[in-house]
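In keeping with the milestone schedule agreed at the kick-off meeting, the structural modelling team has produced records for the first pair of proteins. Each record is given below as a sequence line and a structure-token line. The laboratory manager (R.T.) confirmed that both were archived under the project's standard naming scheme.
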Amino acid sequence: MIQISERLAIGEEEIEESFLLAGGPGGQNVNKVASAVQLRFDAKGSPNLDEALLSRLFAIAGRRMTRAGLIVITARRFRTQQANRRDAFERLIDLLRRAERVPQARLATRPSAASRLRRRRAKAARAQTKRLRHPVAESEK
């Protein structure tokens, strides 16, 4: 089991990893060694994730999550397979931890009387500035 937080853990068997050739640094090894790592985690099929967490995860994951609820993370930042593997797992865990945090509900508030007055005065001053930009009418000359 991979411990995400005190309340959340996912099984290692839920994560499928594959290795692919990565571009970038690595010299001659770049064409021979599959150092990039691709993790696939079926979030929708996981028994440890509830509906609320899934919906937050879907919003946070963006392009990394398919419509079928599969999270795909590709790590190719480092030269070694082990470092890329560690990076991919850290990114998955970070994603799950961020989704686990329930956002604080926004409390609707009303603007104070002083702030409404400041806003009206600022609007009047701006309107006056714009009025002064217009050409002077013949009757006012």
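The second protein of the pair:
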Amino acid sequence: MREMVTLACSECKRKNYTSTRDKKQNKEKLELRKYCPYCKKHTLHKEVK
């Protein structure tokens, strides 16, 4: 079963993206490097509630 998660920028803390992940296979929180339009650069985005 896949779950919708929200990704927030680690620098400005704004919620920019949504993604899906498999709860059974991936127990840890999702972390991706994505473009933040507010910071105007690529930053680490972490999963938030």
